[in-house]
Write a structure and sequence with these properties.
Length: 68
Amino acid sequence: MVEDKDTKKPAGEKAKEIMIRCWRRGVAIITCGTSTIRITPPLIISKEIVDAGMEIIEDVIKEVNKEK
């Protein structure tokens, strides 16, 4: 995650907020390093669950980007 696409300033607080909100909605992701989000699904997972999880992640990222 970056604050600005041009400067590439890390957005660590955004990454943490995204992680927290995803956890609250049932999607387990973690932060890694300064501002990276790591998605670690189980080895056996259905396409439907992947799609639902990605939709939640996308929604949360949009929410956080609007607020910050």
